[in-house]
Design brief:
Barwin-like endoglucanases; alpha+beta; about 30% strand; about 25% helix; 6-stranded mixed barrel; 2 domains
């Protein structure tokens, strides 16, 4: 009877360990590092020139003062952004496709986590420079600077 209880206790642990150390976990780790990362459907990434194309949105006022993935606090007046794959600290020139307006921002957070076609969450100041506050989103082309 004790062997059955012991085996019953070990089964969930074995399943959990297999799930954590299996092939799926390795894919997640490998896919989160730039430049080998795969962007979601609807996002075009050109590895030769480190150009990303897709949709950008901006942070809601709700996030003002909250910690970002880099550890710093979100400042809506700073020229910063969130991206799922680029290393924190990377500087990026983001150009709005329909108007040609551009802004240079620094990646200091992870996201956006809403719709997968969005590739950047911009600070409110960066979104304002791109005239996207009213609409909320814009098609952008981003070039990695460093």
């Amino acid at each position: 009877m004790q062997r059955i209880r012991f085996a019953t206790c070990l089964l969930p642990i074995a399943v959990f360990a297999t799930a954590c150390c299996g092939e799926g976990a390795q894919r997640t780790v490998a896919s989160s590092a730039h430049p080998a990362a795969k962007e979601p459907d609807g996002v075009d990434m050109d590895r030769d020139g480190d150009v990303l194309r897709g949709e950008a949105s901006y942070y809601a006022d709700f996030f003002d003062g909250r910690k970002t993935a880099s550890g710093e606090r979100y400042d809506p007046g700073a020229m910063t952004c969130a991206n799922r794959t680029l290393p924190l600290g990377t500087r990026v020139r983001i150009r709005r496709v329909d108007t040609g307006q551009s802004v240079v921002v620094r990646v200091n957070d992870r996201g956006p986590f809403g719709k997968r076609r969005r590739i950047f969450d911009l600070s409110k100041a960066a979104a304002k420079k791109l005239n996207m506050l009213e609409r909320g989103t814009a098609q952008v082309e981003a070039v990695v600077l460093q």
